[in-house]
Structure prediction request, 124 residues.
Amino acid sequence: MELNLTIRLLLVEHLKHNYMALELTDANFQTTVLDSDKLTVVDFWAEWCGPCRAIGPVIEELAKEYDGKANIGKLNVDNNPNVSVNYGITSIPAILFIKGGKVVDKQIGAVPKSVLEKKIQAHL
Prediction:
């Protein structure tokens, strides 16, 4: 049992260093997104949403490529209804670009990586 726990802890540490997108929640949104001095890209998604799952790998790539420059995260709308309602999210995937606590840009629907990169670059 202890070996399994050790392996799981090592895996978590390994994944952290692979620059995964942040897991955003109702509980951490204020401190992780709104209080951040960096641009934060928030992907509102759900497991049952096909276009959301299609864009997921792009979000992960952006998290790696912009590590240290911007925060890139995902917020599951089914598990975190408060933030979703506060931002009027009615269609997913919805990607908000937040800087200084304010939405500075948004993208509704799955788009090519280049579209998201242009928006990120415009707000860095």
The chain is about 45% helix and 25% strand. Strands lie at 22-24, 39-45, 70-76, 94-99, 102-108. The mean pLDDT is 90. The first strand starts at residue 22 and ends at 24.
